[in-house]
Structures are given as structure tokens and as C-alpha cells.
Amino acid sequence: MRKIPSNGNLKMTKVAYPLGLLVSLFIYVAYIKWHWASATQAFFSITEVATGARRGQQARTALGTAARGHEVFYGIMFDAGSTGTRVHVFQFTRQPRGTPTLTHETFKALKPGLSAYADDVEKSTPGIQELLDVAKQDIPFDFWKATPLVLKATAGLRLLPGEKAQKLLEKVKEVFKASPFLVGDDCVSIMNGTDEGVSAWITINFLTGSLETPGRSSVGMLDLGGGSTQITFLPRVEGTLHTSPPGHLTSLQMFNRTYKLYSYSYLGLGLMSARLAILGGVEGTPAADGKELVSPCLSPSFKGEWEHAEITYRISGQKAVNLHELCASRVSEILRNQVHRVAEVKDVDFYAFSYYYDLAANVGLIDAEKGGSLIVGDFEIAAKYVCRTVETQPQSSPFLCMDLTYVSLLLREFGFPGNKVLKLTRKIDNVETSWALGAAFHYIDSLNSRKSRAS
Ligand SMILES: *[C@@H]1O[C@H](CO)[C@@H](O)[C@H](O)[C@H]1NC(C)=O
Ligand SMILES: *[C@@H]1O[C@H](CO)[C@@H](O)[C@H](O)[C@H]1NC(C)=O
After folding, report:
1. Which residues make Cβ contacts (< 8 Å) with residue 15, sequence separation at least 6?
2. Angle, CA of 53, 56 and 60, to the nearest 5°
3. Active site includes 196?
4. pTM, to two decimals
5. From atom 8 of ligand 2, which residue's Cα is the shortest distance away?
6. Reduced to 3 states, what is the DSSP secondary structure of residue 227?
7. Which segments cross the bilayer (predicted)?
8. What is the pLDDT of residues 286-299, one digit of tens each?
9. pLDDT of 200-236, one tens digit each?
10. Is 186 in the pocket of ligand 1 (CB under 6 A)?
11. How far apart are CA 158 and CA 138, in angstroms?
């Protein structure tokens, strides 16, 4: 309410009015200045920390840089496998203008796998929450908003009918969106074999340091799972690029570079699927009339049952003059024309994982804890030895002769000579060599480059 000034006050008003205005202006300016300063200070200290990880090199986190001269950022990767779900919380550190290194990893696993909730997706929530709590405990509060949260599913969900898998993933996405972490629209997905192989390739090349130094030769990756087997490496020979069949080359963007990788996943050539094929069974189909599957790769006196993909098969060995020879010719039939051979693989350093490791450790070719190196021919020597032994005495592991014979011939099919050295390991620098690290790292890198393209 304003008073209408009377004539007697007019003189006074003439002075007081500008004075009042000046005072209010002063108070206003002082207020704004103080308020702006404290507000922006608070704003910057939050967003710098929060966006630092995403902006990568251009914006070092206020805390990280000021205090220790390096930037710290995190990534959360959920690995939704067929038997369980696992969370990995990765902490990376980057020196100014340097390549990030992994400085800490926390993980926790829960059983059963997501696919167990296919018919009641609500029930999947408590497990996801429990794993999210691990991430919350591990990552400082200030970093939550900037830390990407991702779930990638493998075999288990790949096998579910599309609609069921989609419903499960939608549920997970809903739970993720309600979390305090950085959640994009692409936060949940199902990986195919190539994605898995490429991510594992990133993991080992990140851990061996070959991504840091352009030009330093990279290492290749061999993986042998139950259902499929993967080979991934970076070709350096033009001929490899030109002669690769369609679908065997894939392009990968990392650190502002493009890698043209050779990567292929052979479905049905994983160790368990191969066993079934060698036994003469058909994937997903019980033997007709419960017929026994007979194989020269089992001990001649062996009779038993074997479960694969929820079907139980009756299996038995057969008499043979030379078990290994007969087994090898059966395995060769299975592998004939299945694998694309690349001449260049003999010149690339390869790491081999999963069943390659387990089998080699099982027969003492490598240390079961520390891993080690072997030559491809060692698998063949072991196969011959084991097959000869089971001819006369049944073994505690009835499949060992078959598995070793299969692995030795599979590696030959890929084009590895007998004297080719392979490295078998579960850990490099004490970090587990799973695809999860590479996938998390690549995801963070792609956020960074999207961000720098946008700005
Ligand atoms: C695997 O999935 C990726 C996308 O995640 C796609 O680019 C690629 O073509 C797929 N590869 C195969 C062999 O299906
Ligand atoms: C990425 O590479 C391109 C071309 O090589 C270069 O112009 C650009 O500056 C690079 N960006 C970063 C962030 O290094």
C-alpha cells in the first residue's frame, strides 16, 4: 500500500525517494552478490564432482584434482548370467591427460540368475536392490549422480523367449531409474557373443596396458564357454581384413580411436554343446526312446547319465583299439568346416580363458591358482595320455579324454600351430579378467565422447 503524498511532504519525498532507492539498491546488490557467490560455489562443487567423470579430461573433478592431482571416477556393471547376478563396482583414477587405471574393484554375486524370475518379475527387485546397496556403500555420495549404472545380460536371458526377457529388463530399468546413479536409456541390454568377446578383449588389453600406448601390440582373446566359444584380436595384416567372412569384423571406438577387430562367437562350439554333438545328441531334444548315446571319447567301460540344458542323457563308452585316434576322428567330423581359419593368429599373443583354463589346470599343465603358459601341443599330449589311461581304468572325470581332444583340435582349427604359446590366466595385476571391466570402461568412454561431441 502506498500513501498518496500530501503537498506538505512533497519536499521531503523529493530527497527521500532517491535516497531510499539507493539504499534498497545497495542492499539488493549486496544480497545478490553474497547469494550468488555462495550459490555458485555450492553449485560448482557439486556439479564439478558430479560431471567430472562424464566430462573426462576436460573437467577434472574439483575434489580429485585439487587434493591429489588426479581424477577419480566410478562405474557400476551388473553381470546378469544364467546362474546368478553379479555387481562390479569399479574405481578408476586418471592422471591429468593420462589413461585411466583401475584402482579398486568390489563385487558381489547373488543366486539365482534373473531368468529364474521370468514368470514373476516383481520378485527380481529385492536382489537388485541388495546389489545396488553394495554400490552405495562403496561409492562416496558426491559421486553417485555421475556414476553410470549398467546391466548386461548373457546366456541365461538370451535363451528366454523375447517377451519374457524384455519384461525382466524393463523391471530392472525401473529399479535403476529410481536409484541415485547415472542411468541412461541404454542401461540394460542383452549382449550377443560378439559384444562379450569384444568386452573381454578390452579388459585384457586395458589390464596389460596395450590400450595406453598406441602402436604397442595388442593381445588376442580366446574364450571357451559352455554354449559358445569366442576369438577376438586386432588384425595387423591387411589380408586378414580382406579375407574375413561377413560378421567376423567389428569396429570399436575407444579413446578417440577406431579399432577394427576380428571377433567371432561360434554358437554350439562351447565345451558342453560340443560334448553333446560328439555324443551324437541334438541340442534341446532328448534321445529318441531314451536311447543310449555311445562315444569312443569315453572310457570303454563307462556307463552313466549326463545332464545338459535340463535334459538327461544316458551315455556310455565303446571298445576301441586306440581310443584317442577314434575320438579325434569323431571330433574332427564335428569340427569340419565349422571354423574360419586365420593365418595371422600364429603371430598374435593370445590369452585363453574359462574352460581352456580349467582343463589345463585339471591335468596340471598350469598352476590352478596362478595360471601360466603352455603350448597348443600340450593339450594334444595331455589328450593322448588321458585317453590311453581311461582305456584301461575308468576315471573320476569321464569327459576328460573327450574335452582335451576337443580343445586341442579346436585350437588347430583356429590356425594355431602346435608350438604356439598361449597364456592362461584368471587375473592380471590381481584383477579378474571378465568382460565386465571392459564393458564398464567402454560404456564410460562412450559417454565421454558423446559428451565431447555434443559440446
Ligand atoms: C551384436 O550386437 C551388437 C550391438 O550390441 C551389434 O552391433 C552386432 O551386429 C551384433 N552381432 C551379431 C553377430 O549379432
Ligand atoms: C579426436 O581425434 C580427432 C581426429 O583425430 C581430433 O581432431 C580430436 O581433437 C580428438 N579429440 C580428442 C578429445 O582427443
Report:
1. none
2. 75
3. yes
4. 0.82
5. 256
6. coil
7. 15-36
8. 998 889 999 999 99
9. 999 999 999 888 776 678 999 999 999 899 999 999 9
10. no
11. 30
